[in-house]
Amino acid sequence: MLRMRQICLVAEDLDTIEAHLRGVFGLEVCYRDEGVGVFGLHNFLMPIGNSFLEVVSPLRPGTAGGRYLHRRGGDGGYMVIMQCDEIAARRAHVAELGIRLVSDSSNERSDGIQLHPKDVPGAIAELRWNAGDEDLAGPWSPAGPNWLPAQRTDVVRRMSAAELQAADPRALAERWSEVLQLPLEENGAGQPRIALDDAELRFVEASDGRGDGLGGLDVEAVDREHVLHAAREHDLEVREDDGVVVLCGVRFRLV
C-alpha cells in the first residue's frame, strides 16, 4: 500500500496562502503543528478528501524552508508524503540504495523517513506508516488528533496527481520508481507516471524557469466555476484553456 496522503508547500506569507486556499477551494484548517517551530517554521494542514495539504513558512532566517524559497525563486511545492505499510522493509530498501535521510522518527502511532533531496530529487519524499492505516478516513499523525470535522468536499474532492518537473523527467521518474518499487508507465501524453493506490506521480519537463521541483497538483473539482471565479477574485493566475489556477507557486489543475 502506498498512498499520496500529504502534500507540503512552502510560502513566504502563510496567512495570505491560507486565505487563498479557503476562498478558492473551500478548505478549512484542521491542525497547526507547534512542533515545526523547532525547525524555524510555522504551518497549517487542510484536508482535501482523505489526504492533506500542508503549507509551511519560515519564522526566521536560515531555515531549510527559507533556503528552498530562495533556491526556487518563491513559493512552491516542497514535499510528497506517502502513507505506506511495511515501513521497516521500505527503510531497509532505502538503505540498500545508499539514500541518506533528512529525518527518521518513530513512535507507537507513526513511523516515517524523509529522503535526502540530493539522492531523490524533485521534492522531499517521505514514507510514513500510521496506526489505523487500513481506514481511508483514519488517523494521520501529522494532521493532529481530530481532522475529520475540518473536511470539506463541496468545492474540491481530492488530490489525484502530483506533477514533478525536471530538466530530464524520465531520469527523475526512473529514480522515484526505483525508490518506491513501483513500475514506470506512460500516460496518454507520453509523460512518465507512477501509479500509487489513490493518485499518480507525473513527471514533466521543467519549462517555467524554476528548475526541478514539485510544480503541479491535480485536484478533482466539484464546483469548477466557483474555483475559477474565486481565483480571479483573489487576483490569482487563471488559465481557463487547461483549467489551471496558480496558487502558492503551484499549478493546480482542475480535473
Q: What does it look like?
A:
A hairpin with a 2-residue loop joins strand 14 and strand 15 (250-254). The chain folds into two domains: 2-150, 2,3-Dihydroxybiphenyl 1,2-Dioxygenase, domain 1 (Roll); 156-254, 2,3-Dihydroxybiphenyl 1,2-Dioxygenase, domain 1 (Roll), CATH 3.10.180. It has five helices and 15 strands. Helices cover 21% and strands 38% of the residues. Helix 1 (14-25) runs antiparallel to helix 5 (224-233). It is of the alpha+beta class and 255 residues long. It has helices at 14-25, 64-72, 87-96, 169-180, 224-233; strands at residues 2-10, 41-48, 51-58, 76-84, 101-106, 110-115, 124-130, 156-166, 185-186, 192-195, 200-205, 213-221, 237-239, 244-247, 250-254.
Low-confidence stretches: none
Based on the coordinates given, report the CATH architecture of the largest domain: Roll
Number of helices: 5
The biggest beta sheet is recorded as:
8 strands, mixed
Strand arrangement within the widest β-sheet reads 9-10-11-8-12-15-14-13
How is the topology of this model organized?
Blueprint: E1 2-10, H1 14-25, E2 41-48, E3 51-58, H2 64-72, E4 76-84, H3 87-96, E5 101-106, E6 110-115, E7 124-130, E8 156-166, H4 169-180, E9 185-186, E10 192-195, E11 200-205, E12 213-221, H5 224-233, E13 237-239, E14 244-247, E15 250-254
Parallel strand pairs: 1-3, 4-7, 8-11, 12-15
Antiparallel strand pairs: 1-4, 2-3, 5-6, 6-7, 8-12, 9-10, 10-11, 13-14, 14-15
Helix pairs in contact: 1-5
